[in-house]
Design goal:
It is a single chain. The chain has a single domain (2-339), classed as TIM Barrel (Alpha-Beta Barrel), CATH 3.20.20. Helices cover 40% and strands 15% of the residues. The chain has helices at 2-10, 14-21, 50-53, 66-76, 84-87, 92-100, 128-133, 136-139, 151-164, 166-171, 189-201, 222-231, 280-283, 290-304, 321-339; strands at residues 32-33, 39-44, 79-82, 107-111, 121-122, 143-144, 174-181, 206-211, 238-240, 260-265, 309-314. Helix 14 (290-304) packs across helix 15 (321-339).
Length: 340
């Protein structure tokens, strides 16, 4: 009986989510000025998922191509997270189109490519020049890891990533680069060095670190982990996500950079958190309740008093669940500020 109630409460379908979002259509369109002086930007981790672009879900009638959808999204939110760059290295032409189709004050947070955080990628999705430069035995592999690359091609992956995002950097629209480390990256000197190497390669850009191994924040390692990030002014990405897994990180509220703080909302769908062979939209298919979002309002207020800018990114991008919750938390924050 309990599971049925949870399914109805947290997966009511796009129409029910739209009913909740409709009165709030403009509430998240601009950054929220926190009382302590910091800005809060609210957005989602996708604008192109097929469940989101389906007719009548989020986009208005007529917004049926890439240009119109991004323009509409950018009129609704001041920030978006690009997750496509995790699966395939970006192209400069694509980044130029993103810049051309959005206002100059619109912000793009970019997820680092899988290879850049020690994860594997499909060999066929690598740029042709990099793929063909690989030794034949690596070209034949279906999946490949950066640790297997010759050193010069390792460098080329990072350089290609940086070069492609130049249009956003030049327009001042590049927010942060999200380095999301997988659950097999645990606290160790070697893995701290891995993070330092990434930060050095992305020198001059804001980077943020998200862990998918809870031991970084356990009693033994918490202080060292947060101290490591604070000393380098690297934002620790705070998360709301299912608990009880090796890949679960507690909803720790801590600011490790005075410039930027990030909270990513992954939903609380424990049944799909580590499920195999499902789409990201299905993995994070969860609509937060108003009460669950309200829990985060005082936390966000605390965070925004310590960082110049705070990004609240909803990764529960099944249909309009993320956009609905983004608008709802923006309204909650605005209401609280109005009362204050």
């Amino acid at each position: 009986m309990t599971s049925t109630v949870l399914a109805v409460d947290h997966d009511p379908g796009p129409d029910a989510a739209n009913d909740r979002a409709r009165p709030l259509e403009t509430v998240a369109a601009e950054p929220i000025q926190a009382p302590a002086g910091g800005r809060i930007l609210v957005g989602t981790a996708s604008w192109t998922d097929p469940t989101m672009t389906a007719s009548g879900v989020f986009y208005p009638a007529g917004a049926d191509n890439a240009e119109e959808r991004l323009a509409y999204y950018a009129s609704s939110f001041p920030v978006v997270e690009v997750d496509a760059t995790y699966y395939a290295l970006p192209a400069e032409r694509t980044a130029q189109l993103w810049a051309d189709r959005t206002p100059p004050d619109f912000t793009f947070d970019i997820k680092a490519h899988a290879l850049m955080t020690g994860q594997g990628t499909e060999t066929r999705r690598l740029p042709k020049a990099i793929r063909e430069a690989l030794p034949e035995e690596l070209q034949a592999k279906t999946r490949i890891y950066l640790k297997d690359f010759p050193a010069e091609l390792n460098d080329e992956v990072w350089q290609s990533f940086r070069s492609a995002l130049t249009p956003l950097e030049e327009r001042g629209q590049l927010g942060s680069i999200l380095l999301q480390y997988p659950k097999w990256v645990f606290p160790s000197n070697e893995n701290r060095a891995l993070i330092e190497d990434a930060v050095e390669r992305l020198d001059g850009w804001k980077v943020a670190v998200e862990f998918r191994n809870g031991s970084w924040l356990n009693e033994k390692n918490r202080d060292r982990t947060l101290g490591f990030l604070s000393e380098r002014s690297i934002p620790f990405v705070m998360v709301d996500e299912p608990q009880g897994f090796k890949s679960s990180v507690p909803p720790e509220v801590v600011v490790t950079s005075p410039e930027l703080a990030i909270v990513r909302f992954h939903g609380r769908n424990a049944a799909t958190w580590e499920a195999k062979n499902i789409t990201p939209a299905e993995r994070f298919r969860y609509l937060y309740s108003r009460d669950e979002l309200t829990e985060w309002v005082p936390r966000v207020r605390e965070v925004s008093s310590q960082a110049k800018e705070t990004h609240l990114m909803f990764n529960n991008c099944y249909a309009n669940y993320g956009t609905t919750n983004a608008r709802e938390i923006a309204a909650l924050l605005a209401d609280l500020d109005a009362e204050a």
